[in-house]
Amino acid sequence: MFLRMIAYRLKVLLKNRTLLFWTLAFPIALGLLFNFAFGGFDEVGKLETTKVGIVSTDEEKTADFEEVLFSIKNDGTSIYKGQRLSEEKAVKQLAADNISGYYTITPDDITLSVSQTGVAQTILKEFLNQYVQKTAEVESLLASGSIQPQELSQDLFIEGSHVEDIQEADSYSVKSFYFFTLVAVSIMYGFMWGLKNSNDQQANQSANGIRLCLIPKNKLIVAVTNLIASYILFYIQSLIILAVFRFVYQVDFGDRWLYILLIYAIASLTSISFGTLIGNLFTKWTYQQKNSFGIAISMAMSFFAGMMGSQSIKYWIDANLPLLGRLNIVNLISDSMYQLFYYDSLQPFYLNLLWLSGFAVVFVFLNYFFERKAQYEHL
């Protein structure tokens, strides 16, 4: 009887074309757009020397900046070729596409001017961001007395940062990085199946809920069978999406497939349980209101996980508010994929897995608490 209830629930869920679209077709379509948008970013590692101009009003600051800029090499070849220019000449050369951009260095600031967006311009901007960040860190260390001027070296600016990114470009895939976040978002959309379960189980929300309350079966048994059915369906959907990303869009996920399947399994349970919890918490809201709330939460998590051009915000959170990153389910999933792809050590991955498992356990326990206490004055 238990297996029969799961089979019946699967049939009901498979008839819901709207949810099938949002949890299966939509991520695949969005992945196609991602493929067009970011497919060429992996050519970063094959860049020829980028020409850049430098407009300076501070000789000492410019000399320090140039020393770091021109030290960046890939396979022994300098990444940047720069020349000092007046502002007027820099503007003219930029307009003629003779340079990819130019830095303006003043005693107070360093800015970058570009005339278009592209891989070269993105790299120039990333270098400036990291240089400014490192410079601020060094000034802070000097002010606190933690380091002495004679201890400073170029390594403070290049260690583990932009230089390594360029030198390891053959193993670094920008396309994969963006798809990791998309994978996390597509898994997070599993909350819709959990919300559907909750809506169908509540007598004040649907006719199905009324019928389920009248059948001679324990309500918790019904809830468990609904959870298992939605989990089976959504996990299969997630694997289909993963297969399309890997074999159609040619996204490199690395070779740790057992761990990838494990993160999918736990994350799918977490997202479905999260959707069920939304339904159990806001019992007086309409289904559409609860669904909109779930989408809003998912989009907020996606933004802070770096999906919408917000990578700098994600990095700032990781550096300054790591606990906030741990509370972001989308960030946990995407970071887990990232760690499996780039890191030899599995320790960071295991930590993320522990957090995701903790969320799943908490959500399931809370759903049990609310569903056990659910009562209706009349049907």
Structural commentary:
- The two termini are 26 Å apart.
- The chain has helices at residues 2-14, 17-38, 59-69, 87-95, 119-144, 155-158, 162-167, 174-188, 191-201, 207-214, 219-248, 257-281, 287-304, 311-320, 322-326, 329-342, 347-373, and strands at residues 50-56, 73-74, 77-78, 80-84, 101-105, 110-113.
- 67% of the residues lie in helices and 7% in strands.
- The model is unreliable at 151-156 and 158-171 (pLDDT under 50).
- It folds into two domains: 2-40 and 173-373; 47-167, D-Maltodextrin-Binding Protein, domain 2 (3-Layer(aba) Sandwich).
- β2 and β3 form a beta hairpin.
- It is elongated and about 85 Å long.
- It is an alpha/beta fold and 379 residues long.
- The strands form two sheets. A four-stranded mixed β-sheet has the order 4-1-5-6, sandwiched between helices. Strands 2-3 form a two-stranded antiparallel sheet.
- α11 (219-248) crosses α12.
Q: Give me the number of helical elements.
A: 17
Q: Give the overall pLDDT as a whole number.
A: 82
Instruction: Summarize the amount of helix as a percent range.
Output: 55-70%
Series of secondary-structure elements, N-terminal to C-terminal: HHEHEEEHEEHHHHHHHHHHHHH
For the sheet with most strands, the description reads: 4 strands, mixed
Arrangement of strands in the largest sheet: 4-1-5-6
For the termini, the CA-CA separation is 26 Å
How much strand content do the residues show?
5-15%
Poorly predicted spans:
151-156, 158-171
| Backbone CA Rg | 26 Å
Strands, total number: 6
Shape: elongated
Q: Which class best fits the helix and strand makeup?
A: alpha/beta
Domain count: the total is: 2
Subcellular location: Membrane
Protein name: ABC transporter permease
Keywords: Membrane, Transmembrane, Transmembrane helix
Pfam families: ABC2_membrane_3
